[in-house]
Amino acid sequence: MSPAERWLHTDDDVRLSASFTWSARAECVVVLAHPHPQFGGTKEDRVIVAIAEALAARGASTLRFDFRGAGGSEGRHERGRGELLDVRAAVRYAREQTALPVVLVGYSFGSWLIASALSDSAHAAVLGTIDRVVLVAPPVALLPFSPVFSRLPPMSIAVGEHDAFCSLGGARTLAARMSAHLSLVAGADHFFSRGLPELSRRVCGSVLRAAPVNETSSMNEGWSAE
User: Fold this and answer.
1) CA-to-CA distance for 212 and 216, rounded, in angstroms?
2) The predicted structure's pLDDT at residue 148
3) How much is the CA Rg of the chain, to the nearest whole Å?
4) Which of 93, 154, 163, 221 makes the best surface tag, with the fewest CB within 10 Å?
């Protein structure tokens, strides 16, 4: 099914461009947050689109959206402050469409925004109950994933073996703080120039509660988050 184009409305009156794919057999609705707008990130990012399409093929409903100042959205980039309201608007729209559980998937900058929203008590209260969260390539070397996390939903983190912005040590530290399952995609960098189908499989498994965790896609080197 082709996604339907929608407008989301934030609490500070910014209109956000979004693409919504509905599935009558969905078990959840997945909100996907894209990478950094100042480096070309939009809801049409190849990693975000690949994950969304893989989820839709497995029956999930998906919502991709452009952060303010990116793609077709109004407003301007606000270094993460206003973008927290964008995450709230996307979750609110998802809840308006269905009573199904809401899952959050963020890639790079998008993963930081999701983690930031969940770690802020005011934003977390507005978001309400989130079924689970998947952070893809969280850029721990560039952005401060520093708050103390509490009462988090089930979490998964997926990183590339050669991610220049998320070392294995940094990923392990973040996973431990979040009590998250950590998964390594062998041969992949931050942009998943290689390993994108494997990443999509891992994310689908985490979202749909079907994939093994603490695994590596390499046949030659075992690796675990533990």
Assistant:
1) 10
2) 63
3) 16
4) 221
d(CA 174, CA 138): 9
pLDDT in tens, 205-214: 999 974 333 3
pLDDT grade, residue 83 (50/70/90)?
very high
The b/e string for 56-86 (b: 16+ C-beta within 10 A; e otherwise) is bebebbbbbbbbbbbbbbebeebebebbbbb
> Which pair of structure tokens corresponds to residue 154?
């089930």
Please indicate, yes or no, whether the overall pTM of this predicted structure exceeds 0.85: yes
CATH class of 4-207: alpha beta
Name which residue leads in pLDDT, 163 or 121: 163
- Distance in angstroms (rounded) separating the CA atoms of residues 156 and 104: 11
Spatial neighbors of 153 by CB under 8 A, at least 6 apart, are 118, 129, 130, 131, 132, 133
SS (H, E, C) 31-95: EEECCCHHHCCCCCCHHHHHHHHHHHHCCCEEEEECCCCCCCCCCCCCCCHHHHHHHHHHHHHHH
